[in-house]
Amino acid sequence: MPPIITATDLVKQYPGVLAVDHIDLAIPTGICFGLLGPNGAGKTTTIEILEGIHLPTSGTVLYKGEPLGARYREEVGIQFQHTALQEFLTVRETLELFERLYHRTVPIAELIELCSLADILDRDTRKISGGQRQRLLLALALINDPELIFLDEPTTGLDPQARRNFWDLVKLVKSRNKTIVLTTHYMEEAYALCDEIAIMDKGRIVSQGTPQHLLSEHFGDVILQIPDTDAAGKLGGLGLSAIQAGDMHEIRTNRLHHTLQQLIENGVNLDHLRIRAWTLEDLFINVTGKKVSP
Ligand SMILES: Nc1ncnc2c1ncn2[C@@H]1O[C@H](COP(=O)(O)OP(=O)(O)OP(=O)(O)O)[C@@H](O)[C@H]1O
């Protein structure tokens, strides 16, 4: 698929801060692309340049091969992190207000169904829950039937159930052949939704690819977890790469068969053995040296 949006040699210099440091991106049509990174990495600045809200200091952004212009504004949808909803309006009135901003729109009834808003249509937007608010904000971002949708930390502050419901909604939107660009602090969310991710740190992209590819590229081994009591002092002297993590011993190995044999021969109880897969959170820490912030 050709890229729907490309950024070439993008730079954003603020006084004393190089927020975006010569980055290149080409986001293929129809995928969900995740931009991840620690606080201050430059994600919001990059996204806002791609959205056409800010101009870069240098570099170019092209949408379907053309500079961002009137066509882009008609074809892009943005779910802002902190959209100020007009006070004293109901959910229905808010949808109608946004509908009037575009030439081409999706029938509101379709968005109400897609985003499960039917039960709260007549409610004041100040009196809806966090999950309902995010669904409304997504409906507003979809009102012009955009081809490219930006979601900036769409599930921050939602409880786990509301977050999962929102993921289902994003998958539904994606299945309609839309391209989604997402920022998130939740690695689980990136793994669940993104076909491709880029991890930013200090204004640069430090890792990019499909989650699966990045995990196998960075981690060729697996982690065995054995409860402390089951290992009971038998691991020392085996020459294994073992660390104590809470009440577990974690052993990294790329020779699983051999390591298991070694443990059995040395009388380690494997009844409660678990094999832990590497996660995007491990990758994030590995490439940025920082913990994922909540
Ligand atoms: N308008 C501005 N003026 C000056 N510096 C800015 C401005 N906006 C952002 N910065 C700085 O640019 C750097 C990147 O900020 P940005 O908000 O893009 O990071 P981020 O990755 O989105 O962080 P977070 O996850 O905390 O939202 C930071 O050092 C920030 O302080």
From TrEMBL:
<dbReference type="InterPro" id="IPR027417">
    <property type="entry name" value="P-loop_NTPase"/>
</dbReference>
<dbReference type="Pfam" id="PF00005">
    <property type="entry name" value="ABC_tran"/>
</dbReference>
<dbReference type="GO" id="GO:0005524">
    <property type="term" value="F:ATP binding"/>
</dbReference>
<keyword id="KW-0547">Nucleotide-binding</keyword>
<keyword id="KW-0536">Nodulation</keyword>
<feature type="domain" description="ABC transporter">
    <location>
        <begin position="5"/>
        <end position="227"/>
    </location>
</feature>
<dbReference type="GO" id="GO:0016887">
    <property type="term" value="F:ATP hydrolysis activity"/>
</dbReference>
<comment type="similarity">
    <text>Belongs to the ABC transporter superfamily.</text>
</comment>
<dbReference type="InterPro" id="IPR003439">
    <property type="entry name" value="ABC_transporter-like_ATP-bd"/>
</dbReference>
<keyword id="KW-1003">Cell membrane</keyword>
<keyword id="KW-0067">ATP-binding</keyword>
<keyword id="KW-0472">Membrane</keyword>
<protein>
    <submittedName>
        <fullName>ABC transporter related protein</fullName>
    </submittedName>
</protein>
<dbReference type="InterPro" id="IPR017871">
    <property type="entry name" value="ABC_transporter-like_CS"/>
</dbReference>
<dbReference type="InterPro" id="IPR050763">
    <property type="entry name" value="ABC_transporter_ATP-binding"/>
</dbReference>
<keyword id="KW-0813">Transport</keyword>
<dbReference type="InterPro" id="IPR003593">
    <property type="entry name" value="AAA+_ATPase"/>
</dbReference>
